[in-house]
Structure formats: structure tokens, C-alpha cells
Design brief:
Number of helices: 10
Strand content: under 5%
Oligomer: single chain
Distance between the termini: 21 Å
Order of helices and strands: HHHHHHHHHH
Helix content: 55-70%
Largest sheet: none
Length: 260
């Protein structure tokens, strides 16, 4: 399934015409050549989406940090309230239920209405109103903690503060991510990082290998570095030296294609 067009990229027809300058591709049948360029165009869209996502995350910290601090303060107050409620229950086990029984009717919850909800939450208390307050506080704390995580996670990893790194790591640990240290929800593309270009080179090479299979055993496209360099020029208006692309492909033969 084709993805949506990305602003700045040529359409398939224009891309095909621009690549006519690469005589190396003329050994491919038109259908095979079109299929190759179509796959490359989809890869180019992914590269651009990742780069734009990374750029957005580099611009977000001032706003998200303000929101994160607000949720952090809210969570602290809610946890204190929950702790005070627990202490009240321990210090006055008989008085608290009696107090809750005299709540105004409009805020009371009947035992019949409360039982399914309380059973689902693992409650062992006999007083629905007490349980309802405790459960609401616990749910509110969990929500505030999740919002803290989301605000920290959206900050580009290279720009996270120590507190933001700690929030992300602790949240992922709590959900038993075995590889939480390497978990990458946001593109790890720095402002001057070559990762996206190296990823593009590797993915295009795989497409070239697939296209070469149509030429028969032992046949390969000549000057792959020049072909990919031309693709960079047409798709991204980025000049690339064929030799630098060849060296990157040599490196990837042992190190593999970098992840975005």
C-alpha cells in the first residue's frame, strides 16, 4: 500500500524522468526500473517523516517541561492525599467509616452500585465510599504519572534532562520492557546526525539487490554509489559523493543498516 505524498518529494513520473540520467539503470526492464524507483520513493518518504518528527521533538521541550512539572506537582499532592487517607483509616478505623456514612446523599455510593467496581479493583473494604475515594485517588495518581512520562518521552532523547531520562526509564521498567535502555519511541535523529542518510542508503541497496535479481544470476548494476548519489540529489537536493556511499555500504556489510 502506498503512503501519502510528502511535500518536497517528486511524484513517481518526475522521479523516473530525473533518473534517466543514470545510464546504469537502463539495463533494467522498464517495469523493473519503475518498481525499483517506486520502492525508493516510499523509503524516501519514511526518511523525511523521521527527520521532521525529530525536528519537532527538538522544538518541544519548553512547553512540555512546563506541563510535565505541573503534572509532577499534581501527582505529589494526590499521593499525599492518598497517604493521609490511609493514615486516617489506620488511626481511626471505626471513626472514618462512621464519618463516611454521614456524607450527603448526593455523594454517597450504594453498596449495590459499588460492589462490581470495587471487586474489579481488588477492594476488601466493606465501606463503598471509603473505597471510592481511595480508588479515585489511585487512578488520578496513575494518570498524572502517565502524563509525566508522555511529556518526558516526547522530548528528543538527546535533549532530555536528567529528570526526564529518569522518568522515561522508570516508566519503561515498570512495564517490564526488557530492552528499555534501547527503547526508541521517538526518532533518535540529531540535528546533524547522518543516521537517516545512512539508513536510506542501506534500504535502497536492498531494493537494488532485489532489482538485480531480474538480470539473472551473477549480474549486478554498475556504479551503485553513483545511482544512489543521484537519488539523493533528485529526492532531497543533497549532494553526495559516490565514493562516500560506497564506503558506507562497505561498513554496513559488517555493521548492518542503522536503525531510525
Amino acid at each position: 500500500m502506498e503512503s501519502k505524498d510528502v511535500e518536497g518529494l517528486p511524484d513517481l513520473k518526475s522521479f523516473f524522468e530525473s533518473m534517466e540520467q543514470c545510464s546504469e539503470l537502463r539495463v533494467l526492464e522498464p517495469e523493473t526500473r519503475t518498481s525499483l524507483l517506486k520502492m525508493v520513493l516510499e523509503i524516501a518518504k519514511v526518511k523525511i517523516w523521521h527527520e521532521r518528527t525529530a525536528e519537532l521533538t527538538r522544538q518541544l521541550p519548553p512547553h512540555t517541561r512546563s506541563v510535565r512539572k505541573d503534572f509532577s506537582n499534581l501527582r505529589g499532592h494526590l499521593e499525599e492525599a492518598s497517604d493521609h487517607l490511609r493514615k486516617a483509616s489506620e488511626l481511626a478505623p471505626r471513626l472514618l467509616p462512621e464519618t463516611l456514612q454521614h456524607l450527603p446523599p448526593e455523594v454517597q455510593v450504594s453498596q449495590h452500585d459499588a460492589q462490581p467496581w470495587l471487586a474489579q479493583e481488588g477492594s476488601s473494604h466493606a465501606h463503598g465510599d471509603f473505597d471510592r475515594i481511595a480508588i479515585m485517588l489511585r487512578a488520578a495518581v496513575n494518570y498524572a504519572r502517565r502524563r509525566e512520562f508522555l511529556c518526558a518521552e516526547v522530548v528528543h532523547p538527546s535533549l532530555r534532562t536528567r529528570a526526564e531520562k529518569k522518568i522515561v526509564q522508570e516508566w519503561l521498567r515498570s512495564f517490564a520492557f526488557a530492552d528499555h535502555e534501547g527503547y526508541t519511541p521517538i526518532a533518535l535523529i540529531g540535528e546533524k546526525s547522518p543516521a537517516a542518510s545512512h539508513w536510506f542508503i542501506g534500504r535502497v541497496h536492498l531494493c537494488v539487490v532485489e532489482a538485480e535479481s531480474a538480470l539473472g544470476p551473477g549480474h549486478k548494476l554498475r556504479n551503485e554509489g553513483r545511482i544512489i548519489a543521484r537519488m539523493f540529489e533528485v529526492l532531497f537536493q543533497e549532494p553526495k559523493e559516490p565514493e562516500s556511499i560506497r564506503k558506507e555500504l562497505d561498513r554496513q556489510r559488517t555493521a548492518g543498516i542503522p536503525e531510525l
